[in-house]
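Data availability (excerpt). The following record was deposited with the supplementary files.
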Amino acid sequence: MLITDYELGVDACATPEALWALIGQYFRDTVVDRIVYLHLPPIGAPDERSPVVRADGYPEELVTRYLAERLFRDNPMLRHAQINAEPVYWDDIAVDPGLGARERAFVDELRRHDIGSGVGIPVYGPNGRVGHCGLGFRSGVRRLTEGVLREFQWVCQLGHLRYCDMLQVALGPPPTLSDRENEVLSLVARGKSNTMIGEILGISSHTVDAHLRRIYVKLGVFDRISAAVRGIGVGLIRAEG
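Predicted structure:
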């Protein structure tokens, strides 16, 4: 499949299932014969306890354990995706001396299933929606040319962004706060006390507390820390300018 056809196909996908099928169709004629997609929603998002894992071409036993035992928490590729923008080859991360005990056990489990070589590609979306695409290579392939790697990276990134679009529709719009409530919440997220917020905004601490109570109701939380986390998770915290 040409990359231009894939780009048009992504726009036409209306469901996650259709999107996953398109991604599989794109990679079918390449050196990739196994695909896994992992998305861990950010803390504070309404779906934060609902990770998404899709896999094709991996041993059924491994996929079942991966989901049931939440082994994705020990996947060093996910840690890499959370702190690095560049893809990494499995062969390289498997010998990383910085792996923790659980990450090392995860790598050993993959080796036991003899899944071969591949590459992990970090993907990024709105409000901290980081994901990981794992592409397993056909036998004998260990590396990609730079051009092919960049195209694969674009394919994964575009698919992730389309999935994030679908999630936004499914989850609905974030709660609506007034301008003043947004200011208060942003300052709370930056560690300011009610007294300090009042001084910054030129209002009393009692008024700040009243704003906070309304924010708690709108966000469905009961304390300022939870409000700040939820605000970050749904994209309500504004950057300082």
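Summary of structural features: The chain has a mean pLDDT of 88.
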